[in-house]
Structures are given as structure tokens and as C-alpha cells.
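Attaching the record inline, Q. Sequence:
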Amino acid sequence: MRLSPIFALATFAISSRALADEITFRRDGAPREEEHGSNDDTHDTVRVGSWRFRPDVQLRAQGEYRRDAADQQTTTGDAWTLWQRARLSLEGSRDNVRARVSLQEARAWGATSDGAVNAYEAFGEVKMKRARPAYLRVGRQEIRLGDGRLIGLADWRPAARSLDAALGHFSTELFDFDAFAAMLRDARPAGPGFGMTDDVISTGDQLYALSITGRFHPLFRVQAMGLLRVANSLDALGTNATRSRFLVSSTSGEMGVASLHVSGEREGWTYGVEGALEFGNTGVLDLNRFATAAAVRAGKRFDDIALRPRFRVGGSYASGDDRSGTYRQFDPILPELHAHYGAMDLFTWSNILEADFEAEIELSRDFHLAGAARYARMANDQGEWLSGYVTPLSTGGNPGRSKDLGEEFDVFATYRAAPEVTLHGGYSLYVLGQGAGDMLARTGRSDTAADGSLTAPGLSHFAYLQASFVLPEPRTYREEEK
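Structure, as predicted:
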């Protein structure tokens, strides 16, 4: 059966618990403790001969409720779903060699067909024997650049995101150098080995990146990034993509990105400033591309007063399509979810002018409450409104009318019930702006008023409850126990 490898790995992970009391595990999108390459802490591993193995298990179940969802491509009303994710991993290392395989199943409850078991991670790594990290990693792996506005993990999605890539890392005393080449969509036809010889010919989509990070001071960390995306998958996607200028531009042509991110943290203060420039061509649209974007954030945590409150303010801008002779809609490529633009993921770093505020308190070590508020409007009334999943919510913009997208208010609660179990829930209210209402009404996501006109609902609701189980418990929890 397809699930037999999953159950076999789970049995091995659970039986090894007594020998591996302290195995690192990344939970809910947070990076693993071993930031660069393999972890040399032998207490975190199970020895088999000269090899060290680290098994881990992640289970997540989530229920979601939506009412009059702006990103629901049907009529208005109630919608809800239950889904789960099971991820079982095994990592092995010896000397300067490391390999990791993570099998994952993600599916909605009650689905008529079984969820497919896929390799979420499957890579091999060779590490140079030197004082500072340097390695080459090849295979399917997690990749996140900067704060994830351009390349993120999207761990909020049921299946999350990993890339088929070759990645190299090299560190010096002050600098980190990272470069990778990834296939975003496969070339077609794949050939007789895959039973595909008569598909539409496409070279697929590739993404190349170079990142240089300077660690000059805790308050001054600079990351310069260059990316190149070569896209040729429009024909393979079919005619649905041609309804959106953005989808056409993102699946054909060559796009270069230059980005600079400056950040720092010290004594509870944090800040970040990022700017990005996109250039190139749009392939089938036969237009040159020139788009810009910027983002800023600043925050402070007060550790020496009750409830340890944390406050953060931020804002962002990204240019939109003006239907001129140059394509100006900024493309966020593969952005992080549930991080920069609210829990509903109705906005992203494209055709937007946005401001936000967040606050968090700790009622206890294991119980946190947080809230956020944001206002958003389109940068250009002719550009497309894109969701956090980089899908168009309106392809024609709102020419000559309101750019107002509205306000979103979020509240969150996180409770760590046990070292291995975390409960997380939230509620979000979206107050539609005039521009958002106009665009949704034209796409059929609306109610019929007494006079026969189409009117989009003024409010949209979203609520969720998530339970996560990790085995063994995260290292961060054990460190707090000491």
C-alpha cells in the first residue's frame, strides 16, 4: 500500500524516542535550529554504525470557516473545511555527508480520493570541512530568502512549499553567500520514461538566485539578492491563464529582480527595510517589464514589564499594471503566507499600498494573545488585485474608480498544551473597501439588491483552529525548561 513507507517511518521514529531525547524539529514554519548544514550535536541523534540518524514526526489538523470570502470563486455564503497534514522525516549524516527525506500527506477530511504521499524533502548534502559553514545541497528542499516576501516556505498551506533545486552556501567571518538554481515547473514532454511523448513542448520555468548577506552588527545586517526567472509554461497551462495579464507575464518571458534588505535587532528592538526592482520582458504580452516595491517594519518587545508586550508597525508598496507600453505590476514570485498581509491572505506584495500594526502579549509562558490591523488600497486602479496565493481576485482592476481595498482585523491565540502539542486559533474580519466591492460585484461574488443591482457583501469573516503535534518536542521548549 502507498502508506506503508509512512507507517514504517513512524514506527521507527517512535521506537527511537528513548535513544533520541533531544531531536530538533521545525514547527509551524519556524526555521530549524541548524541554520547552516547538519547539526553536529551527537545528543540529538541515534547512532547506527558510523551513521547518525534523526527521525521526526509532524501532524497538523485544522478547521476553517469562511463567510462571504473575497477569495471564494463562487457565490457568497458560508464555506468550511477540515484538513490535515502528516509529515514524517528521517535524516542521516556521517562525517561531511548528510541526507534528509520527508514524506508528506496533505488532504481535506472526507475527500473521495486518498491524499497522495509525496516527498516534501529529499536531498543530499556535502559539507566542506572548515570552521565556518560551507556546503552543496541537491534535491527537494526548503528555501527561504530574507523575510520571505519574494521566496518563502508557505507553511500555512496544507502541503507547504519546497523547491527542486541545487543550493550552495559559503560563509566567512562577515558574509554569507548563497546561490541556487530551481525548477518551478517541469519541462514537457518528460519523455518515454514518464510515459509522456506527445505533450505540449515547454522548457518549463526555472528560478536562479544569488544572495550575499553581510553580518556587520546586530543592528546592521544587509542582504543583497539577485534573482532570474525564466518562464515558458504558458502553453502548458492552457487558455485559462490568458484571462489575466499577470498570469501571462508570470508564465512566459524572462524577469530579473534586484533586492536589498537591511535589518537589525538589539535589546528588544527590531527593524527591517527592503526595496526591490524588477525588469525584463513579459514574453507573450510582448512588453518590457519595470516594476518596483518597498517595505518597512519596526518593532519593540518589552521584556522587563508584565505580559512582555510586543508592538510592531509596518507598511509596504508595490507597483501595479497601468496598461501602458511597459508592464509595471510587481511579481512577488513565491511569497510567504500568513506572515506579512494578514491571516486571510487577501493581499500580497503586488499593486498595493498598505499599512499595518501588530501587538502581542504573553499571559503565561505557554499562552500568547496577539492582534493585528491593516489598511490596504491598490497602487494603480488598472492593475490586478492579487491574493497571498498570487492568484488574481480581479483581473481588470477598477479603472477610474476607487482603489480602496479595505481593512482587515485579526486576533490570535496560541496555547502550548504540552511540549509536543500546540493549539492555535484565530478570527479575522475584513471590511471591504469601495474598490474591492466594485471588483467582486463584477465577478459574480455578490448579492442582488432590491433594485436588481449586484452588491458585494460589506463584511467577510474567517475563523480557524489548528492543532499541531511534533515528536520529539521542539528544542526551543526544552531550552526554556532549563
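The two ends are 43 Å apart (CA to CA). The chain has one domain: 4-481.

More tomorrow.
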